[in-house]
Every structure is written in structure tokens, then in C-alpha cells.
Amino acid sequence: MTTHHVITVDGLAASGKSTLSRMLAEKLGYVHFNSGMLYRVIGWLAIEKKIPFQDEEALLRMLAAHGVSLRASAGVIEVLVNGQPVTADLSTPHVSQATSSTAVHPRLREALLAMQRALTSQCPLVAEGRDMGTVVFPEAELKFFIWASEATRAERRLQQMAGGGRRSDQELNRLKSGLEIEIRERDARDQGRAVAPAVPAADAIKIENSAKSLTEVLDTMYHFALARGLAPHS
Ligand code: DC
User: pTM above the 0.90 mark?
Assistant: First the structure.
């Protein structure tokens, strides 16, 4: 079985890792695997099927019953449920909270390992998430950990949400405080859990991304990739 190159990009919520991973994958001709989407589909399914987030047995049964799988398609890895891509909005705060609560379960995470690792037999990957470099792809040739201050991350989320909308300053401040609380709670759960916590791998390159532009960080990542011999895939 051929094993393709893997670059891992772990980091905290709203740190910019998704945009950076997508752009790095494009630049290198690799496939972008956003593992957060896999966990979001599980959080979303748990809401849909009314499964209590703390009930690991029921979540495992749900996973088996709905045939969650991964497929490479047009430069990204899609998450399928019963063979179909999910079209629901997986970015809502409700799904985010459900996801971070259901992602704490060790056996559930274990059940997702084989399908993630199998991707390396199909294509070279930029794999982003919380435990890509520590647990899923410990042998990856290049690992990054991206973080930014809470305030910066809340501001970025706000910009994404507010895009084009007309909101008063009062409403924007209220939204920003809510986002900071959501991010803080999610960080605490993601970093504090017993299994696969969101921490940098010992050999990860850590990038603090509060004051830097996307292009600057992307260039840094790209140059590390070139230096490791992970040249653009033809
Ligand atoms: O990257 P994201 O914000 O879309 O991830 C959503 C949630 O999924 C996050 O709160 C933690 C969980 N997650 C995880 O536990 N392990 C991963 N590899 C990716 C995401």
C-alpha cells in the first residue's frame, strides 16, 4: 500500500487553521482534510437523532447505523453519511458545542481512526484538526500548531458572521462577548479532555497567528514544506 505525504495542521478554534490548511493544500497540490468536519457531522447527527452527548454507547451505535465515511473529491475530503455528502449547516454554535461535547469520548475517537489513516493510501494530505500530529498521523513529515489570542479569534469569527450584514455597535459587542465565551468554553473542553487533547505534538512547529497576515503565515508554512522536500505534487 502506497503511503502519501502528510502535513498536519492542528490548532485551536477559529485560529485560522482551516483557511491556512486549504491554501497550503492548494499551493502544494495536496488534498485538504478538515477532520473538524468529521467531528461536526457526528455532533450534528447526535442533535438530529436526539442522542445525549454524554452517551458514548448510543453515539457508537449511531455511527455504525449511519455509515459515516470519508471520500476524496475535487481536492478535499468529503464526509458522507449513508454514502451521501451532508448539506446541513455544520458551522452553527449549536453544532459547534455538540461537536466539542461528543468529541471527548475515547472509543468514539478510536472508531474514527482507521478511516482517517486510510486516506494516506489515496492522496497526499494537509490534515487539520486537534490531534492530527499527536494521534492520527504521528509519523507525518511536517507538523504545525496554529494559535492566536482569544480576542483575535472572536474578532475573526465576528467578521465572518457580520460579512455584509448591517449591525449596530451594541449588537456587534454583544455578539463578540458571546463568541469569546463560546471559544473559551470550547478551548477548555478541547484542551482539557483526557483523550487526544488539542495540544501541539512535541515535534510541531508552533505559529502564533494574532498579528500576522494570512499570506505571511502561509509563506512560512510553504517554505517549511519545501525545505522538508514536500515539493508540489504533480
Ligand atoms: O476545527 P473545528 O472547530 O471545526 O472542530 C470542531 C470541534 O471538533 C472541536 O471543538 C473539537 C473537535 N475536533 C476534535 O476533537 N478532533 C479533531 N481532530 C478535529 C476537531
Answer: yes
